[in-house]
Every structure is written in structure tokens, then in C-alpha cells.
Design brief:
Blueprint (H helix, E strand, L loop, with lengths): L2 E6 L17 E2 L2 E2 H12 L4 E6 L4 H10 L7 E4 L4 H10 L7 E6 L7 H14 L1 E7 L4 E4 L5 E4 L5 E10 H7 L11 H7 L6 E3 L10 H15 L2
Parallel strand pairs: 1-4, 1-6, 4-5, 7-11
Antiparallel strand pairs: 2-3, 6-10, 7-10, 8-9
The chain binds cytidine-5'-triphosphate (CTP) and ligand LQXTBERG.
């Protein structure tokens, strides 16, 4: 079956506050995005890679690819004003009648190949596969009255990407007006009245969001190299 991956990197990284958006910052000697694309490519070079970045960054990305000798084949697509719009643009660029598509944040370079692989397998079986992890900490629910209440953490999961889907189903799901609660692709899919299937993600698969995440990312790379 055809397999594609949409790597969304159309954001500006406001919470990182760096002069260049976080997806282009270097960790371990190359930009974050290159690590992310490589995980998919090394797992299976036949996966069609679609990279979504802001249109204004197209030439900058081309320069980075030349500078770092980056040769992983990928198609570049213009991002939108929100993550939802960026994913939609990525989906519209895939003309296959059917197949599977993994949607992954460009700023999650530590996704494991096993999670990506499991995502494709389970999405082929169930129509969707959403990577999640159990909570390690206790949690409390806040109220408007400034109170807080214990919550049973076994009923909660932290949501990661990849979120992998049957291509036809997810394209159909994205053919809607964007809603405020569409923070990921699972919410768009279930808005269609479909149930999402959860798979185990990997704890290292952090979303690089704020400056301390960059330090942790460096640490994870050093640990991988055995330094
Ligand atoms: N218009 C947008 C907004 C976000 N994203 C992507 O969605 C992923 C997760 O979003 P987030 O971490 O929130 O990234 P930013 O929007 O860049 O960060 P911030 O909210 O701090 O500005 C990132 O890979 C980001 O580039 C995107 O493709 N298009
Ligand atoms: C898609 C996502 O990474 C899953 O955890 C997340 O929902 C993105 O949210 P953000 O607040 O826009 O970073």
C-alpha cells in the first residue's frame, strides 16, 4: 500500500522566541527538521515525504539543504495560518486515490522508527493510529472558583504525533471548516463521527516548544551517540 508522511513545520515558534523558527535550529550539527525527515527516510525510503513550511522560507530551506548536504528526497508544500491549514495543504498535495498517511510535527525529531511503523500497521487495520503516552505525574482539574480536584490519571493520555490515517478518510475529515478544538488531527478525524485508535508512543518523542526543550534535545542526541 502507498505510504506517505506529512511533516508539518509551518509554524513560527513563538514560544521558543528564537530569531529563526525552531524547526531550523541546529541540534547535533544539523537543523531539527533534517533529523525528523531522516527518521522516516531511514525507516523506509519508499515513504513519500511531504514537508510543509511557510512559503516565505522556501529559499531559506533550499539554502540549508545545500549547506548541510541534505539529500533526503521530499516535496515542499506551503503552510497555512494554523496547523490545521498546513496539514490540509499537505493532504491536498497527495493525489493518490488511496494509501496511508502519517502526519507528524517537524519539531518532534525523536520519534522512534518502531512507533512510525506501528502507526502505519494499525492505521491499515483500524483507519487511524494516534501515538500517546500514559502520564507519569498526578494530575488535578482546575475550576473557575479557584479550586482543584483529583483526577484519575489512568483515564488520561498525552497525545503525540505521528497520527496516521487511511488517506481517503482523513482527506474527507479535513474537508470541513476549522474549529477551535482542532489542536491535532485526531480531533478532526473524530469530528466525522469516527473513533480513533490509540498506539503507544515513545517518551523521548518530545515536541520542541520552549528553550529548555532544546537543551533536552541536545542531551537526547548525546545519549544516542553514547557521549
Ligand atoms: N501554521 C502552522 C502552525 C504550526 N505548524 C506546525 O505544527 C507543529 C506543532 O505546533 P507548535 O509546536 O505549536 O509550533 P509553532 O506554532 O511553531 O509554535 P508556537 O505555538 O510556539 O508559535 C510544529 O511542527 C509547527 O511548525 C504548522 O505546520 N503550521
Ligand atoms: C499535534 C500535537 O503536537 C499533539 O500533541 C499538539 O496538539 C500541537 O499543539 P500545539 O499547542 O499547537 O503545539
Amino acid at each position: 500500500m502507498n505510504r506517505a508522511a506529512i511533516i508539518v513545520a509551518g509554524g513560527r515558534g513563538a514560544r521558543m522566541g528564537s530569531p529563526i523558527p525552531k524547526q531550523y535550529l541546529e541540534i547535533g550539527g544539523k537543523p531539527v527538521l533534517m533529523w525528523t525527515l531522516e527518521v522516516f527516510y531511514q525507516l523506509d525510503p519508499s515513504i513519500k515525504l511531504v514537508l510543509v513550511i511557510p512559503e516565505v522560507d522556501f529559499s531559506f530551506w533550499q539554502e540549508l539543504c545545500q549547506q548541510f548536504g541534505f539529500t533526503v528526497p521530499h516535496e515542499v508544500v506551503a503552510g497555512g495560518m494554523s496547523r490545521f491549514q498546513s496539514v490540509k495543504n499537505g493532504l491536498n498535495s497527495i493525489s493518490w486515490k488511496d494509501g496511508l498517511v502519517a502526519i507528524h510535527d517537524g519539531v518532534r525529531p525523536f520519534v522512534s522508527p518502531e512507533v512510525i511503523s506501528l502507526g502505519y500497521d494499525k492505521a491499515a487495520e483500524y483507519g487511524s493510529a494516534i501515538a500517546v503516552t500514559p502520564l507519569k505525574d498526578s494530575i488535578r482539574k482546575l475550576t473557575d472558583e479557584n479550586k482543584s480536584f483529583y483526577q484519575e490519571r489512568q483515564y488520561f493520555r498525552l497525545v503525540q504525533t505521528p497520527q496516521t490515517f487511511d488517506l481517503k478518510m482523513i482527506k474527507q475529515a479535513f474537508d470541513v471548516t476549522e474549529l477551535h478544538h482542532f489542536t491535532d488531527d485526531a480531533t478532526v478525524f473524530e469530528h466525522q463521527g469516527r473513533q480513533v485508535y490509540l498506539i503507544a508512543g515513545n517518551y523521548e518523542n518530545i515536541k520542541i516548544t520552549t528553550p529548555e526543550d532544546m537543551e533536552y534535545a541536545q542531551f537526547l542526541l548525546h545519549r544516542r551517540k553514547g557521549d
